[in-house]
Every structure is written in C-alpha cells, then in structure tokens.
Design goal:
- The protein is of the alpha/beta class and about 280 residues long.
- The protein folds into two domains: about 170 residues, Rossmann fold (3-Layer(aba) Sandwich), CATH 3.40.50.700; about 70 residues, Alpha-Beta Plaits (2-Layer Sandwich), CATH 3.30.70.20.
- Helix 4 runs parallel beside helix 7.
- The longest helix is centred in the middle third of the chain and has 13 residues.
- It is globular.
- The two termini are about 30 Å apart.
C-alpha cells in the first residue's frame, strides 16, 4: 500500500517482504519473465471488500458489469478479499472476516436481520475505510418505504442507513452510483489522493435526502441558478424544471439524495476543480 494511504489509515509503513530465492548449484541467468512475475507476486494491492445488505443490487451492477471502465481495476489494481458475489467469501462464526483497506457497503441495514447487524459491526472492525456505497447505504433511499422483503403478506420492517449504526468514512452517492465515480474513487485510494476523496468524505455526513431538502436549502435561499442538474440526476424523474426552478413530485421521490449531491450550490470543491482544470 502506498505511504499516503497507510498514513491516512494509521497503518504505518511496512516494507514488503521479499521472497527468498534458493540459489542453484549451477549459476544461471534469471529468466526475465519469471522475474517480472515474482515482482507482481510481492506487489501489495489495496484489499477491497463488498458487503451487500438491503438494496436492489444496483451498485454491484455498476461495479461489475461495466467492464470497459472497471475491468482493469478489479483484475489488476486491487485485490477483492471479501464478498458473496465478487469473491465468494462468506463470514460467520467459523470463518473470520479478512482485513480490508476499503469496504464498499451496499444497502441499508434491516434492524430485524441479526446477521446483517453482526456483519456491519464486524466490517467496521476489519476495514480501514467504510464506504456507504450508493443511496440506500447513505440515507436509506427507497428501503425507507419497503416492507419485510416484499413478500406476499409482508410484515413491517425497519431499515436504517449504515451511518446510524457505525462510523462511515466516505460515501459514493447515486441510485445507483455511476461506474465513473467508483473507478475514480478507487484509483484515488490506490494513489493515496485523499484530496480527491475529501468531497466523498464530506458527503458521509450529508442528511439532504430528497427534493424537499433541495427546495429548503437551495431554492428558498435564492441560491438556485436554474441549471437543471438536479432534474437530470434524478433516477425516478421526480424533479422537473418549471420556470427555471425545480419542482418535486413527492409520489415519485425515493429520497435517494442524488439531486442534492449533484446540485452545484450544495457543495463546491473549488480547489479540486481548479486542480483538475489546471487553473
């Protein structure tokens, strides 16, 4: 792991142990290809875990099905050490959860699901960074309206955001989160670029979840410029622009928070934008 990541996670800098190679009685020149493979074996990659709780699996689709963007990252740049789909590693009392540099947690937590409760607490112990992966993990999103797994005769259940139970370090917003933001955030972690990740860390404590919040925090304060970004970001088309200002259809809103996240008036990482644009 790069020094910046270890410093941020408080892991310290540990040199990568070199593998001992036994010398043969007859000296031979090392094969170039074998030497390269040996370097790759000892190279340390960030350890990533994927945890799926109560959600629609939209984030895992963004993560795994967009091969043109994420194939290189998932296969060569990181090591997926935990997950029921990406790694086929299950955690229970007999199989301890591995250490992770980053845990991507998708879905909210069902308080009636004992295994989910135990798993999220264990994730917090094992992961250097816990990421609320998508809107359900961030603020509950549509699971706030869900009932007991959508059975024929469902019972009421309680779903809460991950941050209601454990400390969340950063969030990747969206319903679902886009492949681009996933890829860029993981690359930033690999490069130790915590400046890039800072907005995602700030969003971890964001409580603006719906179009009503956008009305209260932006439009009512005369901050709206009528750019229409909120309406374009809305996955359910709950927001429309009327006479230059957003209007929210509450029957369509699932409280994913995408509108507030994408609104340029809610947060503005000026220094990072200037750096990316070379200003």
């Amino acid at each position: 792991m790069l020094a910046k990541i270890k410093e941020f996670l408080g892991l310290g800098s540990k040199p990568v142990a070199k593998k001992e190679v036994k010398k043969e009685a007859t000296p031979e020149k090392p094969n170039k290809e074998e030497s390269q493979q040996e370097v790759e074996k000892v190279a340390e990659k960030p350890k990533i875990g994927y945890i799926h709780l109560s959600g629609c699996t939209g984030e895992i689709m963004s993560l795994s099905e967009n091969y043109d963007i994420l194939a290189e990252i998932l296969t060569n740049m990181v090591e997926v050490v935990y997950g029921q789909t990406l790694a086929d590693v299950w955690w229970d009392d007999e199989n301890p959860m591995p250490e992770m540099d980053l845990a991507l947690v998708e879905g909210s937590v069902c308080l009636q699901d004992e295994h989910s409760l135990k798993e999220i607490y264990e994730v917090r112990k094992k992961a250097g960074l816990v990421c609320a992966f998508g809107s359900c993990a961030k603020n509950g999103c549509f699971t706030r309206f869900a009932r007991g797994g959508q059975q024929a005769q469902p019972k009421h259940e309680s779903f809460v955001p991950v941050s209601d139970l454990v400390k969340v370090d950063l969030t990747l917003p969206g319903c679902p989160a886009s492949p681009e933001i996933i890829a860029k955030s993981v690359v930033a972690l690999i490069n130790g670029d915590m400046d890039y990740l800072q907005p995602m860390m700030d969003l971890a404590s964001c409580a603006s979840n719906c179009g009503c919040d956008l009305q209260t925090n932006v439009v009512n304060k005369a901050l709206c410029t009528g750019c229409g970004t909120c309406a374009m970001a809305c996955p359910t088309r709950a927001l429309t622009i009327n006479e230059g200002r957003p209007e929210c259809n509450k029957n369509r809103c699932v409280k994913c928070g995408s509108c507030s996240v994408h609104c340029p008036r809610t947060w503005f990482p000026e220094d990072r934008i200037k750096q990316d644009l070379g200003l």
